[in-house]
Amino acid sequence: MTNVPDVPHFDEDDLMERLMGNRELAKRVARTFMDSMPLQLAALAGAIQSSDAQATRHAAHSIKGAAANVSGKAVQDVAAQLEKLGEAGKLEAASGLLRQLSDSLQTLEPKIRNFVSGIK
């Protein structure tokens, strides 16, 4: 398991640059991300619990892509690790990474909510 302490949880500048400064679009993307995460995290947890490597890979890939869309770097990195475990069919470490992913999402959530609300 690789820790990602030096990776920012949310890179607002990167998000705004990729969306060409369109703050309203960035807010919509961020809201969609936060609204979708509970279901995506539940799908990943279910896949890991049932030892379904392919479903784990797929769910982690979806979370990784969604996190990349909002510049949620730490979440993206942990999801990428989970995706690789699923791809390799080695889910032994997946539960620990799932906890790390959940913690990263809990850290990211207020940052995204503040961005959407216009709070710095």
What does this structure look like?
The chain is mainly α. The chain has a single domain (12-117), classed as Four Helix Bundle (Hemerythrin (Met), subunit A) (Up-down Bundle), CATH 1.20.120. It has 5 helices and no strands. It has helices spanning 12-18, 23-49, 53-69, 73-88, 94-117. Helix 3 (53-69) runs antiparallel to helix 4 (73-88) and helix 4 packs antiparallel against helix 5. The protein starts with 11 loop residues before the first helix and ends with a helix.
Give me a quick take on this structure.
The protein is an all-alpha fold and 120 residues long. It is 76% helix and 0% strand.
Task: Determine Rg (CA atoms, Å).
Answer: 14 Å
Q: Overall 3D geometry?
A: elongated
Number of strands: 0
Provide the CATH top-level class.
Mainly Alpha
Mean pLDDT: 92
Relative helix content: over 70%
Q: Sheet with the most strands?
A: none
